[in-house]
Amino acid sequence: MTAPARGGRILRSNPWSRLVTALLLAIIAFAALLAAMADFAAGRAAEGVAGRLDADETVVVWSHGLESADAAAARAVEILARTPGVSQVRWLDPAAGDRLVATALGAPGGQASDVRLISVTAPDGGTALARRIVEALAAQDLPARATSRSGIASAGYATPILASAVLVPLLAILAFAIACWVEARREMARSRAIIDLMRIAGANPGFIAGEVRRRISGLAFVTCLWGASGAMVVAALAVRRNLAGPIGGLSRQDLVTPWPALILLLWLAAVAGAGLAVRSRLKRMA
Amino acid sequence: MNRAPPDQAPSRWLISDALSTNPAPSADLGASAPASPIVRFDQVGLAGGPSGWILRGLSFALAPASFHWLTGGAGKTSLLGLIGLAERPSQGVAQVFGRDAAALSRKETVLARRRIGLVLEPMAFVEHLSVWDNAAFAARVTGRRIDDYAGDVDAILKWVGLAKAADERPAALAVADRHRLALARALVNRPELLLIDEPPEGFDDAARQRAFRLVSEIHAAGATVVMVCRDEAFATASGRSVIRLQDGRANLAEPEAA
To answer: Strands A88-91 and A115-121: what pairing?
Structure first.
């Protein structure tokens, strides 16, 4: 059997072990990228709901005791019209209200509900208006919720930001770093004899570390691309089937937006994880 | 497998040129003065083995450009490892290139190792690489560019008679050829100190003579050589210095003056 004549790779991995690690890394990258894209969709969906609310406050009333939802809404309009600071009150068409509720909750629309939405315009309402509205309705034995447009928008963003920008990527990056740390340790254990040869021949620890790190970082980069490609395909299918929400969910642009930053972070985590493993092993060998 | 014919005319130019232009960073290690020994052991011991000590109380000095047989009982490979900075002594002072091995920093150890060629048993190669890459190994791992050492590797492989096997894998080589490949690998960084372990079983007399001839050439070019020899009578009769190991202790016998 003829070997490559010049400059072959000094370290060579066990192909099965490398495949298992590659699949694991690709799945982590896939989950991280898909989560990021889903968060984009959630943010846009929330923005869509907020954009459709043309009033400062949206009051939600529902059927209560023997009173129907429509009767409760009619009574609420009368009460709110007398509330100080409120300049205009409008009862939203029940069908339009149902569509908004369905969008906000992510539930399928088109079903009649016992919830009614009332738009309240109050230019100088401020943050206390919602509380005043709820108190005024409660005083008339009418349970209700009041939400400002900006409140919906920020809630729509706050959740994904907490989930995506902090938790999901952090977990994914941590998992990536750990997987690369383990793979680097295994690679060094497998290649112990070759690494000893390198040391005896006068290789710098940095050269040895570079050999291992290069292999792990290459693997990490390729598997990031696998994972990202998979996430893009799934998200593209979701867009195509309108699963991501027709009123402002995932856009085609979102299919590629999270790639660069997240892949860079995952790759850096891989390099850091491998670097830590190599450093500790070399220290022990020295 | 194609095999190169035995070397009829070893390239003295290559070896002498290589050693005379040795690029090893001796300045960093305070290269020993001509008269001072290249290796000096003072009551050196290496812990291990069932008795607690593999080697103990070793005291000897090796002059630059000298040749020494290493014979005797157990511990020969360990001694080569100590001289070659592959092991650290458990006691005593082991000086290599005029510096205490135990006091060398990591960087200094790396630089010193580049001035030493080590052929240890069992011979370990990177089996998935070619013979050429294995011969080039010591140069490559020191970070040299391939253009810088490719000519040296070609010349050394030709000199040891493995030029035509350059694209083979080490596993395809006979035992004697693997030994010559290990020698080629040890020479590629143009070492000042060459340490050669006992040739493995399967070495016939012709192969042994040939290996000895190659090593003699390197020694004649100025390298200090320590070579393990099983045949003590041959070592004594050769008229060269002999380090005898017995019960973990060394006795350095200089040849008698004619």
So the answer is: antiparallel
- Report the gap between the CA of A236 and the closest CA in chain B (Å): 43
Cross-chain Cβ contact B124/A199 below 8 Å: no
Would you place residue A234 in the very low, low, confident or very high pLDDT band (cuts 50, 70, 90)? Answer: confident
**Cβ atoms of residues A122 and A48 within 8 Å:** no
- Please state, in angstroms and rounded to a whole number, the distance separating the CA atoms of residues B246 and B76: 10
- 3-state SS class at A90: strand
Global pTM value = 0.67
How close B199 gets to chain A, by Cα (Å)?
Answer: 18
Using a 10 angstrom Cβ sphere, with 0-12 exposed, 13-18 middle and 19 or more buried, the burial of residue B39 is buried
Does the pLDDT at position B59 exceed 90? no
Helix (H) or strand (E) holding A169: helix A168-190
CA distances from A47 to A211, A255, B48, B65, B222 (A): 48, 18, 72, 83, 81
B158-213 tens-digit pLDDT: 888 899 999 999 999 988 889 889 989 998 888 999 999 877 666 677 777 777 88
Residue B19 CA, distance from chain mean position: 14
Can you tell me the distance from the alpha carbon of A8 to that of A250, in angstroms, rounded to the nearest whole number?
46
Phi-psi region of A248 (alpha: psi -120 to 50; beta: other; left: phi over 0): left
> B152: closest CA among B22, B44, B6, B3?
B22
pLDDT, tens digit (0-9, with 9 covering 90-100), for B118-156: 888 778 899 999 999 999 999 999 988 898 899 989 999
CA distance A203 to B143: 8
For chain B, list residues whose CB is within 8 angstroms of any CB belonging to chain A: 84, 86, 106-107, 110-114, 116, 118, 120, 124, 126, 128-133, 137-138, 140-143, 146, 150, 166-169, 172, 185, 189
- In chain B, the percentage of residues whose pLDDT exceeds 70 is 83
Could you tell me which chain A residue has the CA closest to the CA of B88?
A286
Q: For residue B257, what are its two tokens?
A: 């003056």
- Number of residues assigned to chain A: 286
CA–CA distances in Å: residue A250 to residues A50, A99, A230? 16, 18, 16
Whether residue A128 is predicted with pLDDT greater than 60 in this model: the reply is yes
Most A CBs within 10 Å: which of B26, B126, B168, as the mutation test of the A interface? B126
- What count of Cα atoms within 13 Å lies in the side-chain half-sphere of residue A26? 15
Q: What pLDDT was estimated at residue A286?
A: 61
Q: What's the CA gap between B195 and A108, in Å, rounded?
A: 80
